[in-house]
Predict the 3D structure of the following.
Amino acid sequence: MINKTVKNAREAVADIPSNCMLMMGGFGLTGIPENCISALLERDISGLTIVSNNAGVDDFGIGLLLKKRMVKKMISSYVGENAEFERQLLSGELEVDLIPQGTLAERVRAGGAGIPAFFTPAGVGTEVAEGKESREFDGKMYLLESWLKADFSIVKAWKGDTAGNLIFKGTARNFNPIMATAGKICIAEVEELVPAGDLNPNEIHTPGIYVQRIFQGENYEKRIEQRTVSQ
Amino acid sequence: MINKTVKNAREAVADIPSNCMLMMGGFGLTGIPENCISALLERDISGLTIVSNNAGVDDFGIGLLLKKRMVKKMISSYVGENAEFERQLLSGELEVDLIPQGTLAERVRAGGAGIPAFFTPAGVGTEVAEGKESREFDGKMYLLESWLKADFSIVKAWKGDTAGNLIFKGTARNFNPIMATAGKICIAEVEELVPAGDLNPNEIHTPGIYVQRIFQGENYEKRIEQRTVSQ
Amino acid sequence: MLTKDQIAQRIAKEVKNGQYINLGIGIPTLVANYIPDQLEVVLQSENGLLGIGPFPTEEEIDPDLINAGKQTVTMAKGSALFNSAESFAMIRGGHVHLTILGAMEVSENGDISNWKIPGKMVKGMGGAMDLVASADNIIVAMQHCSRSGESKLLAECSLPITGIRCVKKIVTDLAVLEISPSGGFILRERAPGVSIEEIKSKTAGKMIIEGEIPEMIFE
Amino acid sequence: MLTKDQIAQRIAKEVKNGQYINLGIGIPTLVANYIPDQLEVVLQSENGLLGIGPFPTEEEIDPDLINAGKQTVTMAKGSALFNSAESFAMIRGGHVHLTILGAMEVSENGDISNWKIPGKMVKGMGGAMDLVASADNIIVAMQHCSRSGESKLLAECSLPITGIRCVKKIVTDLAVLEISPSGGFILRERAPGVSIEEIKSKTAGKMIIEGEIPEMIFE
């Protein structure tokens, strides 16, 4: 098996240039690539376009990249919970493309799957439809949406092996497996890295073919946004 | 959890009418719903349109349904290995729609996923492209293909639970998980049926939402087409 | 006038055995508390979980297990986990039967606005546009009027649209209303002590009143 | 003239470290036997396996584990299993770097025919149309001439096309040829003892001969 291991986050993100397009897995703060975000903060790059369902919070996740003015544009479905984000957006420093969450997920999947465009019902009759081709199938209207691809995709998994195979945990899976398929280079950070052959082939969520670099991350904070307990 | 259990194959296929459209999982003879095929053979129905990657062999799998003249049309990617099939095709008793395997898989996935049409590169410049819309994206040509849906989809899994969650084994997975999503009614036969809660939610290949009926099959023959061993 | 919990309680009566349901943030989340135990239903969370369980105890909390509102949750028996593309595949494909969500405005032909107020910070539509474009049955839970007293049931939505001709039923603090296929809010039930006249005066869109309009009953 | 095994052996030299490869039925399957041990490559089977291992022993045989040619196989260390939609997603998405397959005809602009002979029973294209429309590098393994002695390297394919402008290289029993981006078969190597004249006489399409044409070397 092909060995995809790199030493750490610093090595994994060392060649990410300014002004490139990145995808980052995660939903809210769950399943985000914490180690790679920290390593990116040490890099002197800017002008990034980031595809991510959310944009983190002020002092965690993608919010940290925003604070350091490394981001030119966010492509997301929901970007609340972030005062610095709002400030940059209103001042015109930051661009935002808002996309229905299912359309975002399907566009990313299409990017990895070689499907340049597809029809979806989400957004028909709304401002999302502006400028888009629409067509009726079986009496219902649909919009034509195009694939999304990135220069790099950065994902976080639970377990991984040296061949790049990944297993996610709980709802930390979210956008990670599809983004892994849509980056020219996919970087995966995992909580536990094992030798190829140690994972059950039947339980793998992301086949190693999609992953170019993998390393075992450390010190995961896994911050909780809405700590909700039963009474 | 919703209990999807039915008693056996006979009960599962009891209401499948003549002239309806069926999807059947499997690649070659691997992962085919042996029990449901046997139960269908006892039914007095005909005029079926079957979507299946292959058409079985003369005396096993879908070949048995063909022999009993229950099938009007096959939608497949590869249909060799079957003399009775060839006879019916040449005599005009049977219609066949041949579709590139990846297009077949993606059309079935689209049927389950609410995507009425998508662009794919397979078949550009070939007779598969005849009558289809084509379009260029990023300098490459693609064909517009539409979703495939069925009245019933019949799949075979390794393990399943009463909530309809399925786990497949080896390459017996193949078309089964996507076909499970594209039938109005999905019938799943499994080698081992366990109570809801006994399967690890992280290891499930087909979430129970797609499955309407499930039962534990018996006497699996699992015939091998090309028994190949190393010297 | 109904409390938020009573709105949720009334909506829970719409739930049928065997349904897969997506509950939006706010009042819709409360609906889960009122679904009768004898009904077998499964709650979907669009971030990748079928079978949302109760909120966790302090000991059970797992940061890798949240719902679409980013709240920590547990998994019910027989749950399944999946990625975001698969999640919206099951939503768009019509496998989720019922979507319950909040709204800022609903129009008499079933259009819904719930994602954007011009001039205010735009947070995004999240999964709402996919949900309303997909499920066969969409029920809105909301207050009948805005805080400033304006009706939220209109002839046409004034705010940017989330989806067109999709809402089937609305449960507010004052009434239960259905969208007529030919347009209009059909009044079905009144909140205890609320008159038809009051509902009429607070509904800006066309209201259809046919026969007796019973009061809701809460056990 | 090369044997089938020698064609496979020559093609194996085209394999690069770190590649994901799909091998078609027939001669392409034999290529696996000649890939040098020091190369780390992964073989994909379009029915849902990355990491095809050797054929099983009698004891290892598992009817639930076959390749796209329906042969029983084993899994290499670090394998992954997936469904058919995912399999062709990775093929169409360009993640499989190299496809090696057989052909009935190849044209001088890289068109390939390998799925249908008019008047004969049509078995179907299987995954071939997806494979040739997707991979960056497509190498054809075939005999230079048909059994009746007709050239299979033509100006234009006479049989129904499987894919257009996709073949990059052809290894036959007589020669290694590349498709020129501007059209034509560029002769790169001769089989041991086979003359340029013989290859020329058996190539119906335009052949391009530049400089010395070395004989292939087999260790």
